[in-house]
Amino acid sequence: MPRWNQWLFFGDDREGGCFPCLKQLCLDSCPNLTERSLFKSGTIEKLEISSSYKFMESLPLDQYSRLNELRLVSCENLKELNLDIRDVIESLEIVVCNKLVFPGNHRYASIRKLRIAACDLIKSFPLDFFPGLKELELWECLNLESITAFSEDNGIATLQSTLNSLTIDDCNNLRSLPQQMHRLLPSLSNLEMAGCPKIESFPEGGLPSSLRNLRIDDCNKLVAQHMHWDLHGLTSLKSLEISDCDVVLDSFPGGLLPISLTSFHLRYLPHLKSLNGSTFQHVPSLHELVLLDCNELQCLPEQVLRPNFLRTLVIFGCPILER
User: Fold this and answer.
1) Could you tell me the Gene Ontology terms of the biological process aspect for this record (predicted)?
2) pLDDT tens digits for 96-140?
3) Which residue(s) pair with 81 in the sheet?
4) d(CA 282, CA 57)
5) What is the pLDDT of residue 71?
6) Which residue from 97, 127, 132, 96 is spatially nearest to 113, judged by alpha carbons?
7) Cα separation of 248 and 277, whole Å?
8) The predicted structure's pLDDT at residue 155
9) Going by C-beta distance under 8 Å and a sequence separation of 6 or more, which residues neighbour residue 114?
10) 294: exposed, middle or buried (C-beta count within 10 Å: 0-12, 13-18, 19+)?
11) Are 155 and 124 in contact (CB under 8 A)?
């Protein structure tokens, strides 16, 4: 509704006006609506604004006392959120809001799930501003350079004990994962990284031992340093996936695999030449091995072909092995 510019209400906004039971409101492609026409109600639990209110610089949310989930997409002039409800929202998604300053200097204790995509103003993301956060996704934040897991106050680091899932995708300028994450993110069980070309290594101290799933996609510099990964200490790791890297890998992986590993996927590694047989000697729980589009992979090690070792072996797009 591109020509709609005013929403006339009847009744008391605090009681929902003519929609006294409304719990979910989605406004899409209403660019000419003004801030004054924003429907306000204490009954709404989920609010989505997409390509609407293009002239709105501040989003007033003080009357949404029950708001639990907020999604903002392509709010091109939005610069700030009203923070009176920062202890109510549990799920927040911000997509293509390039003028929004977030998180600013405020803490958001209630947010459990946060997704930020294509927001160019974000250069550093402070995890300690979200003490209750459990899931974080950062997508296509092209100016993001760092993620910090703690703030220093008189030399004391604030622990982040709740984050259990971290996804980073196409953040081209991100240079490292959070420092000391092995100690400061003790609940992290899922880590997915894709399209982070400037990350060269894991932080000092390695990854949290609580990790159960690790996916690394299109991170050439990081994969080139696989000899220094030290994954053997990840005693909870169940699933490992490495994909879409065009670095030359004469033998992979370079170090020992965790004894807890059950699933190992290698996808789109065109210059992988061989699997390091010694790494498979101490993974009694490994049941699944998937090899996709590894054009130069020449053979499978004897350790992989042992009777009763694998339950599932998938090979596709590996022409030398398939001969």
Assistant:
1) defense response
2) 988 888 887 778 888 999 999 999 889 999 998 888 999 999 999
3) 59
4) 58
5) 93
6) 132
7) 18
8) 43
9) 91, 92, 93, 130, 133, 135, 136, 137
10) buried
11) no
Half-sphere exposure of 61 (CA within 13 A, CB side): 27
> What's 186-211 look like in SS3?
CCCCEEEEECCCCCCCCCCCCCCCCC
**For tokens 């020449």, what's the residue?**
298
Neighbours of 78 (CB within 10 A): 23
Q: Residue 82 corresponds to which amino acid?
A: N
Quick one: pLDDT at residue 231? Answer: 92
> What pLDDT is recorded for position 152?
47
Q: Which residues contact 305 (CB under 8 A, 6 or more apart)?
A: none
- pLDDT, position 17: 56
pLDDT at 254: 83
Query: Facing residues of 241 across strands?
Result: 215, 265
Computed over every residue of the chain, the mean pLDDT equals: 85
Calpha distance 138→115 (Å, rounded) = 6
Q: Which residues does 207 contact at the CB level (< 8 Å), separation at least 6? A: 181, 182, 188, 191, 214, 231, 234
CA distance 162 to 188: 8
Cβ–Cβ < 8 Å for 32, 56: no
202, amino acid identity = F
Bridge partners, residue 169, by sequence: 139, 194
Distance (Å, whole) CA 1 – CA 76: 17
Residues whose CB falls within 8 Å of the CB of residue 103, separated by 6 or more in sequence, listed in order: 126, 129, 130
Question: Cα–Cα distances in Å, from 134 out to 111, 188, 202, 213?
Answer: 8, 9, 21, 15
Residues 137 and 169 sit within 8 Å (Cβ to Cβ): yes
List pLDDT tens digits, range 139-186: 999 999 999 876 544 444 545 568 999 999 999 999 999 988 998 899
Task: Measure the CA–CA gap between 230 and 206, rounded to whole angstroms.
Answer: 7
Q: Distance (Å, rounded) from C-alpha 221 to C-alpha 148?
A: 21
Among 46, 52, 43, 49, which residue's Cα sits nearest to residue 12? 43
